[in-house]
């Protein structure tokens, strides 16, 4: 896979790490309003990560079947 997919995969790993950090933050947050904000941010990041996984898989399948990425 070329440079684009490699950068995308790296971004996905970074986003996963950010979500994990937000989960820890949420576990230790006592302020309800702040907890809601963290939860909303985490939900948004998780949705983006899911979309990126779908994009990455589609790209990977296109590469394998068309042999454009060899």
Describe it.
By secondary structure, this protein is an all-alpha fold. It has one domain (3-66). The protein is 86% helix and 0% strand. The protein has two helices and no strands. The chain has helices at 3-27, 32-66. Helix 1 (3-27) runs antiparallel to helix 2. The longest helix has 35 residues, at 32-66. The chain is elongated. The mean pLDDT is 85.
Summarize the amount of helix as a percent range: over 70%
In whole angstroms, the N-to-C terminal distance is 7 Å
Radius of gyration: 16 Å
- Strand-residue proportion: under 5%
> Overall 3D geometry?
elongated
- Mean pLDDT across all residues, rounded? 85
**How many extended strands?**
0
Structural class: mainly alpha
* Count of distinct structural domains: 1
What can be said about the biggest beta sheet?
A: none
Low-confidence parts: none
Number of helices: 2
The succession of helices and strands, N to C, reads HH
What is the structure about, briefly put?
By secondary structure, the chain is mostly helical. Helix content is 86%, strand content 0%. The chain has one domain (3-66).
Topology:
Blueprint: H1 3-27, H2 32-66
Descriptive terms for the model:
single chain, 70 residues, mainly alpha
